[in-house]
Amino acid sequence: MGLICAYRFAPQQAGCALDVAALQQQLAAGLPAGHFVWLHLNLSHSGCQRWLRTSLPALPQAFYEQLGAGTGSTRLEHVDEALLAVINDVTFEFDRSVTDVASMWACATPQVLVSARLKPLRAIDQLRASVKRGAAFASPLGLLVHLLQDQADILIRIVRDTTASVDALEDSLLAHRLGDRRAELAALRRMLVRLQRLLAPEPGSVFRLLNKPPAWVNDDDLQDLRESTEEFSLVLGDLVSLVERIKLLQEELAAMLNEQTNRTLFTLTLVTVLALPINMVAGFFGMNVGGIPFAANPHGFWLLVALVAGFTLLVGRWAFRWRERF
Asked: What is its main location (predicted)?
């Protein structure tokens, strides 16, 4: 059936873990007022959706249609007196240095919160840890708000770590010790742009929900949702600023590399120009024709060497003085 965990929540009490049999019994008997259950499912299990349709037939059809639909933009919407959410989060894998993003789908009703994912996610793992530590929640929306706050905390850590990396790269660039770090900057920018593209729609969808919330949502949960969304918007603003900062570093690094390339090409051109008199004189004296200058002079070779060297020095001095102007 793909059930990862299930908890029952009562007013002012911590969540109580349920096994499969106890969960099915609770769902069949119904829950008292103020009580609700949280089910977290693994969609990679073949019988997950079939069991979910059988056990919770009251969930809206729109929730089942979006399950496993692939990574999409984050959103929170109101459908048939239920809250549907698509939450993108960082995958929970220790052996990867590159941040990967995956989706989690959730549906909240007055007495049930269902969350489902294909890959382990960091935010949902932190939520499970909070429930195990005894955190109390008054409603399914309270759990969902806590999940969004954990998602914002993870994004804050990503932005903080990336900012530290960008600071180090910027210091190296100012000290002209950066080298060719374009691949590293491009990887950081690609990761942040992907997070921005997936997470940016979230505040707008939440604010639309706050304008027309379901009737069963209380004011305290709405206030918590509003505060978490405002905090998330600030984090997204920091992420956008960091992307622009990386873009400027890439442009500065490209300009430095272009300048170095131009200087190298200019130096090679000067060397070619300075060697031109020597090649021309060697070509003239290698024709083996009559009238070659200094052919009968015992010091002719050294005279030509002095003449060519003096001309080369004059041309070189002029060329390098001209180069210093640019």
From this structure: membrane
